[in-house]
Amino acid sequence: MSECRKVKGEGKDCCKENEYQRTQMQKEMIIEKLKEHGGRITKQRLMLLDIILENECSSCKEIFYKASKIDRKIGTATVYRMINALEDIGAISRKNMYRVAYSSECAMEDACTVVLDDATTYHLSAKMWNKVVQEGLNACGFAKNQKLVSITFKTCSRVLARDSGQL
């Protein structure tokens, strides 16, 4: 598989079926782990799990905004309890919710999707993502003989407001 797949005018991954199958397997494994640890599998928990697996949410607040669009009765406490339960079974690490760290040796495909204003879409492998950022840092004079270790993202408050319908 190539390091970068370009799909002109298409904002979605062309291999959506593989993504769905992988997400479905992850979901089933997480549900089993939750059950093993005495967790109840409610409709709200299933919805939250879908949101977490299908989106690149960077905070509990962002997960809550997406969930409240689907179920207006969901509370923030439900989201935090679910995140804690997922952390307890090792499905996620809240410490890494903002962190995207791919070394130049990472072989993950489709680690990053970049969409340009003309709808040109690039699907970058972890290696290519690392290369793009490293070369950008070098070209802008930020990195001088230094290697990229990790990048920390925070969701823009305007994006959160827009996604929650407040903008």
TrEMBL record:
InterPro entries: FUR (IPR002481), WH-like_DNA-bd_sf (IPR036388), WH_DNA-bd_sf (IPR036390). One of its GO terms (molecular function) is DNA-binding transcription factor activity. It comes from Catenibacillus scindens. Transmembrane segments: none annotated. It holds the Pfam family FUR. This is Fur family ferric uptake transcriptional regulator.
